[in-house]
Amino acid sequence: MADIAHGHDDHGHGHGPVNPVVEVIQHPKPSLYWLTYGILFVLLIVTVVLYYIDLSAATRWVGMNFVVAMFVAVIKAGFVVYNFMNVRGSTKLTWLWAVLGFVWLMLMAGIFVDYRSRPSQGGWESQYTERMR
Question: To the nearest 10°, the Cα dihedral for 117, 121, 127, 128?
């Protein structure tokens, strides 16, 4: 029988490397937070001003105020996600999940607007309430 000499690192017990690489996170400068705060504050003022302006009279479309308000809200949410939730310096996979979250939100909003815009036709409720009378 032959003796085989094994070094300590050759066993492969799944403990990982001897000197693991430590991930260093660089925090953004405070000026970025102040800039984001200023932009969010300006967008808040825009939201409040838009509440008092009737855009549907100018465009002759009833849902214009809602569309503009949602556009401003999506911009504000994008700033928060980008700067405060560390999407700014992260991987492409994190970007993908952040974008998919916004896509899901837009799909849900579209379904809700579609549902609310349809006229009420009574549906199944009218059949059962007539029988109960």
Answer: 30
The 10s digit of each residue's pLDDT in 19-35 is 667 667 677 788 988 99
Backbone CA torsion sign across 113, 115, 120, 125: negative
Give the C-alpha separation, 72 to 66, whole Å. 10
Q: What is the mean pLDDT of residues 76-80?
A: 90
DSSP 88: T
Task: Report which of 25, 41, 24 is spatially closest to residue 33, judged by C-alpha positions.
Answer: 41
Question: Dihedral sign, CA of 61, 66, 70, 76?
Answer: positive
Please return the burial class of 41, using the count of CB atoms within 10 Å of its CB with bins 0-12, 13-18 and 19+: exposed
* 78 neighbors 56 (Cβ within 8 angstroms): no
Q: Provide the residue ranges of all domains of the chain, joining segments of one domain with +.
A: 30-115
As a whole number of Å, the end-to-end CA separation of the chain is 96
Query: Are 89 and 26 spatial neighbours (Cβ–Cβ below 8 Å)?
Result: yes
